[in-house]
């Protein structure tokens, strides 16, 4: 039974392969991991800033405008002026363009054939753009620079040539489909075809990328391939600011996108991600092999085909989500797919680049490396799964659907990890029975992980109960539909990869390096399922995150009680509280505050945190969810509102909040009220001050 991998064995080397005669690789793989760490580290920083509401979505739009309308045009202008057209291998450029046209055509035709008439044109246009427009500048360029800067620095200029051509040729076709769909859905008079063409051309010309590429190419010949000295520093300053700002903004745009994931979008997401991350790189590589026949150097030809494959793996650009939002079409699929494809592309790029640098396909070291990777991933994944099982049991979700099936999935994944770890020790011993039992445990558990996921049962009916019990019931019956849909999506992609690996081995006599890449990818997704489960279910919102926030809120509340109270509140919070109490409180009470039963005979006037967030945006006090959370947090810190048990801060969730005792402080001089303040208090306090013959008393008088 030898060394075991995911489902097959490593292919033997092809005749004539000789490690001593194979030239050195054309890319520097040792610099790829730091580049990936840099890119995705900055992306995660941006995501964390948006997730923790440090930067709201409205504020993020300003950064996005700077990146797309200042930094990126300056970068394009600089590189178009300095571009050396003599070193461009034009067949490679045409190969990438033809590959994109093929993928665009395939996705467009299939979408038109299988979707309903009400939305087929918008889906065809946006899905085709999704599958062909790559994140070339923010994410692709740093990867290419890390791999080819030393050996093939001329490869970096293809990024600036391929992206604009795609924008000018393919995107207008997709925009035309969207305009046709928009034209059909309008109730008023229909627009002429000439108007549709004019709108599409105007959108293309207004795109700063296209405009600046045209200006840059014209300046290339006018200025003699050199930027004038008086503007060189200015252009460099804007161009150099693009990299980090673009990646940070990409992370900001990912916040909250997976919430839009629904079961109805799963099939479309699977097909689109497969087309972008699997079909596109294969067609790009194949087109270079076919069209780049005039290349004298076989080494350069092989290097270009590998580069084409890596280029095809670049994830979808976030600008596609902007197109979807502009037309208000297919926003759920596009935004969720953009997030998933970005993070799936990282391991695919790394494994692809690593395998493409292997000069000789010796089966023994490859099989050993494959088994070592599977063993190491299984160990770490085992700990992640133990954590997920513990969370599932302690949160008491094990007896409810669909978490019951999820728990069984966790147990099957635990069996996979235990089987892989045991196989690493059993395989070296001459114990046939032990090998059979371990093999049965390993593969029985592995393929059962693809059977346990998708039909959910109905959750229990809600009934009249106390407010606190209502919150607890909502938290305990949260079925986490979006998380389960995402897990099913990722497991389906993994299943398709395993199926492709089996078919490839059966149909090809010499599978080659791409088959090895697929084998390594299958090993990662098969034995690393614990990472997926930990990322999706390990940090349970109601069992871990909210209690952690509750503890922080309690600490802040206790600290605030020890302080002088309202006197230590910042001017910004005081101003917000005064503004709300004076101008908006009555309207807020009328719109969202309701009397709810909180005991057998008691009634409380409360509202939900989610209702408050929506109301603040509706009346214009906040432009987005982030600003609404900030506004509500100020009201809570100022004492205008509080959670019914003081256990939580202000959250956009099914949590009940109320106002304290409705009272108003008054300053009295010898029994006569002389001044009022619109500040909230929760108790009646009396303070006396004496100075000379004047006696001041400060009361908190109930309204």
Automatic annotation (TrEMBL):
Q: Where is the composition biased (Polar residues)?
A: 1-10
What's a Pfam family this protein contains? Mem_trans
Domain DEP, which positions?
602-660
Q: Which PROSITE patterns match?
A: DEP
Residues forming coiled coils: none
Enumerate the SMART domains for this protein: DEP
Species, as recorded: Astyanax mexicanus
Segments traversing the membrane: 32-50, 62-82, 88-114, 126-144, 156-178, 199-222, 234-255, 267-288, 308-326, 338-361, 373-393, 405-426, 432-452, 485-506, 518-539
GO annotations under biological process?
Answer: intracellular signal transduction; negative regulation of BMP signaling pathway; transmembrane transport
Question: Where in this protein does the record put region Disordered?
Answer: 1-24
Annotated compartments: Membrane
- Kindly give the membrane topology term recorded for this protein: Multi-pass membrane protein
- GO cellular component assignments: membrane
Q: What is the lineage of its organism?
A: Eukaryota, Metazoa, Chordata, Craniata, Vertebrata
Protein name, please? G protein-coupled receptor 155
Question: Where in the sequence does UniProt note compositional bias of the Low complexity kind?
Answer: 15-24
Q: What is its main location?
A: membrane
Q: Which UniProt keywords apply?
A: Membrane, Transmembrane, Transmembrane helix
Would you say which domain of life the source belongs to?
Answer: Eukaryota
